Amino acid sequence: MDDIPSSMNAQEIEETLRSLGAQGLTDLRVKSDDRSSDRRCYAFAEFSSEDASTAFLEQHYPALEFAALDGSSVRVPIAYSRDRRPAPKSDDWQCTMCHFENFSRRATCKQCKAPRPSEDAADMQLDGKSDECPQQTASQFLVVRNLPPSISESIFASGIKKLYVAKEDEPKQPAGAPVKLKSTAPVGNTSGLGAKPGSLARVFVIRDRYSDASCRYGFAEFSHIDEARAAMAKFNATPQFTIGSKPVNIAYIHSGVFIPYLKPVITEQDVKFTFSASHNPSLRLSYWNPTVYASEYTVFNEDLYAEKSTQPTGPESNAAAKESKKRKAEKDLVAPGGKKTVAMAPQLAKWANKHAELHRGKPKTIKDDQIPDEKNVPVTGPSSLGGSVISPSISVPSTFTVSYANLDRMCCLLCRRKFISEPSLRRHEQLSDLHKKNLDDDALIQKATSDLKAVGQEPVSTYRDRAKERRMAHRQPTKPKQQPPRKHNPASKDNEPKDAAASKPTISKGAGLLAKMGWSNGAGLGAEGDGRTHIIETMAYTPGVGLGAEGGKIGDAAEEAARATTNNYSDFVAKAKDKARQRYETMG
């Protein structure tokens, strides 16, 4: 309604509309426009339904007749009001991770620091190229692109392991053959390049959240940034690096690829779509794109259980074979750390007898019923067996552990694992978390014991150096640091005899020779002793200064040599005072 008389208020307008048959009138808003010279009033009438407003408009269109104060009628045009103009589209954006509303000027979320998602993030091509660092700044993570579509996490990890440094033996040339010149071209020469074996920590394959289909790229995490650099150096030196028979591209990632996941991890999907940070296990990370996720695969470090000793070839192999037969008993006692430890209580009795023989004592024979319990046998110090049994690798009492290993089949019956050699098996018993966990399971222990008895063997008790494990866990040194020497009290220095150096007069070479010829101190030289009695003083001079120059003479050479040898600060102060006194006397 337009051109309403300014003298009418909202109540009068509403009463007029109701008198004209406005059924279902719910609200009336009166507005005025003061921008023009003459004041203009208009109003909006809201009805309860569209049918009521349509019936009122069709009845009175195009204008209403309002009665003025002077009795005249005023014509008020009516019409449908247009829809409200749409609000200008805001550029504010909502974070896909924490759903926080951010201003348009922000590039990252204020709450979780996640990068601003692209408008077509769901439709954009995910190939890993956007995850590469433009400056190629070194990082622990490497992005690997152009992977095969059917790649799995284990095959991906095996392909990345080809970036380890490899020690290849050079082929031996037959005798008399001409020397073959080596190529000095750097292309394809990867000798000495690569990461340390076992440095690959985890690999991630990017997969779709709904179909689990691979996006044909992934990430490799190394234990240290230097290992990632070494792996990149080998990749750059390799003419064509392939994974799954397909050439791939490798580069460093930027810092916005993996972002913190701040929501509580409750469901299985939260655990599947996120992973723990290596530097902070309490922090969960996720891939920046919410439509895909990083499928985590932890790489098993086989170097912990790998055989480190090399097999000798040629004549050395025969000697090694003889030595293995000769020292089989000693090798049975080799611990995972490479040091010999006491294996069982009968061995303690044997070496106690040897100890008694070495000390010319009568060897003691210990019966089986006199063998103490394994848990009560001390490792160091005097034992009940009559001797002192000391192991070079154990400094504090250790505890017994029971070995459920079958050396014939080279396997651990407690964990159901097979190994290639005995040292690898011993490392498994010492370092494996699975083995430590199974030692607390009575059912597994009973089953392993029955399996050993089935092959005619018994569980063997061995010592376990728990003190050494604690030192390694807490990074404590094997030898305590020495305390710095305490500074002596200055008063004690004053009590020292000042003539300590003077008590031992310096005897020159010449005086020694004269003494051998019968000369005594204070006597004159010559056959009759009427010659020179006082010693010719040897003077020290400043290097590079003439003999007649003023200030070139330093003093007695013997005193200067003694002062330079002792390097005492008090001598230096006394010498400086003497110099100052001489200069003062020279000035008059």
Structure description:
It is a single chain. By secondary structure, the protein is an alpha+beta fold. It folds into five domains: 10-77, Alpha-Beta Plaits, CATH 3.30.70; 92-124, no CATH class; 125-166 and 189-300, Alpha-Beta Plaits (2-Layer Sandwich); 328-473, no CATH class; 537-588, no CATH class. 27% of the residues lie in helices and 16% in strands. It is built from 16 helices and 21 strands. The strands form eight sheets. Strands 10-7-9-8-14 form a five-stranded antiparallel beta sheet. A hairpin with a 6-residue loop joins strand 5 and strand 6 (101-102). Residues 307-315, 331-344 and 361-398 have low confidence and may be disordered. It comes from Truncatella angustata. Residues 308-334, 356-385, 455-505 are annotated as: Disordered. Keywords: Metal-binding, Nucleus, Repeat, RNA-binding, Zinc, Zinc-finger. Its main location: nucleus.
CATH homologous superfamily of the largest domain, by name? RRM (RNA recognition motif) domain
Assembly status: single chain
Round the mean pLDDT to the nearest integer and report it.
75
Q: What's the structural domain tally?
A: 5
Shape descriptor: flat
Alpha-beta content class: alpha+beta
What is the topology, as strand order, of the major beta sheet? 10-7-9-8-14
Biggest beta sheet attributes:
5 strands, antiparallel
Organism: Truncatella angustata
Main location: nucleus
Subcellular location: Nucleus
Keywords: Metal-binding, Nucleus, Repeat, RNA-binding, Zinc, Zinc-finger
Tags for this entry?
5 domains; 5-stranded antiparallel β-sheet; 3-stranded antiparallel β-sheet; 588 residues; Alpha-Beta Plaits; 27% helix; 16 helices
